[in-house]
What we know:
Blueprint: H1 2-24, H2 28-56
Amino acid sequence: MGDLRTKLERYEAKAVHCMKAAREAPDEAGRAFYEELAYYYDELATDFRRVLAKRTGVSLAAE
């Protein structure tokens, strides 16, 4: 479980980093690229949250 939580935290951090990079991008293409990466990492984090919730019996609404 610790490994799953570590990966979850990593994907959450990457999503935040990419959103920051998107805000700081000098052009629309760069902004779109980093926004798409942020979305991708956020979706991965969501998937990991679901797996952890199933394994621990914790509702996603509780987090």
